[in-house]
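Form 7-S
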Amino acid sequence: METVTLTAPGKPEAQKLWTAEEFFYHPLSANCELVRGRIVSVRLSSYEHGVVALKLGRLIGNFVAEHQLGDVLGAETGFTIHTDPDTVRAPDIAFVAGARRPASPQGFVRLAPDLVVEVASPHDQADEIQAKVEEFLSAGTKMVWVVYPKTRSVAVYRSLHDVKILRGDDALSGEDVLPGFERKVNEIFE
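Output:
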């Protein structure tokens, strides 16, 4: 993900901080994120990224639907995870437990998903991925999975101090966030 700060027409960058509500109606919200009030661009991803993200999203989605656990949301879903200034992030896959469903799901909801999945692309910068992980965890996300197709591995974050790297036949588990969900890491990349 390459970040490029964009500004309002005719307004110097230092003068304009966007709110989540303003950003929702901005034409760039379809392919950008809002970070501390600034609109940043997000690059389109590779074919491999799309295949891996959809496969894992389908595995999670089927499990969640079968057990009626909540909602699985795709990459275009924006979550307001910080305010004043606002930050709106759109993970590749998100899970929100049924008990936490927003009463009014219009616009960018103000909540941190229970599970966030980011699939790394070849052009993603490690510090940008880490920044997203930190933002979601500090906002209240219980677990973040960062999937690395190049190394066929998954980094599982419960906090910045509780991180596991899984590969091959290691079990990727939903633990207490998605109880009963378990798949071998290899399955994601087949």
